[in-house]
Amino acid sequence: ATAPAADNTLPSNSRFYVEPNSDAAKQAVTDVKAGDLRGALTMAELASWPEATWFTGGSPDQVSHQVSTLIRSARWQQAVPVLVAYDIPLRDCGQYSSGGAPSDAAYRQWIAAFAAAIGQARAAVILEPDALANLPQDCSATTDPTGALTAARMADLRYAVSVLEAQPRTAVYLDAGNSQWHSVGDIAQRLIDANVAATQGF
152: exposed, middle or buried (C-beta count within 10 Å: 0-12, 13-18, 19+)? Predict the structure, then answer.
């Protein structure tokens, strides 16, 4: 059994952060300069929608600075930022989105710095897309023959949940992949093993 999640659920009237320097906003300016007002209006509308900000690597100090910068910008807008933490070791089985922290210890330092930089601010965190749906044991028959890498992945995710949920106003959501990836029973067990009960959802 695990402790129930803290009441970090986002208020239903939450307004999410809009990045003022998004690619869509830059394209709107480019379109205006080119005399394409219709295109500029379309891009400006797109730029008005909130989107998540991804954090995919760097040192603990670097990610702390990046997260702190976003938190300050969101506070100025009186909005809730949505952050995606994406630095788990052996990310994406070394495929298209390969990368991630070089070790479990490095990851834990990184995610602890990430969480500390959020601090008292209201925030939503999407934790490690594909990390549960694409465990090391799923990569190939030879990637994790003993199951040690998969066990370490689960331990890393549980640690990440614990340090993020320790922040008083951070809502954490685990990614469970898409509906065609695993059976309900399989992905449900993975969510339980990663301590989804201590989060706001998946």
Answer: middle
**d(C-alpha 160, C-alpha 165), whole Å:** 8
pLDDT tens-place string over residues 118-131? 999 999 999 999 99
| Predicted TM-score of the model (pTM) | 0.91
Task: Examine the pLDDT at 4 and tell me if it is beyond 50.
Answer: no
Mean pLDDT for the chain overall: 94
The Cα–Cα gap between 66 and 60 comes to 10
Max CA distance (Å), the chain: 62
Give the number of residues written for the chain.
202
| Spatial contact of 79 and 124, defined as CB atoms under 8 Å apart | no
Distance (Å, whole) CA 115 – CA 110: 9
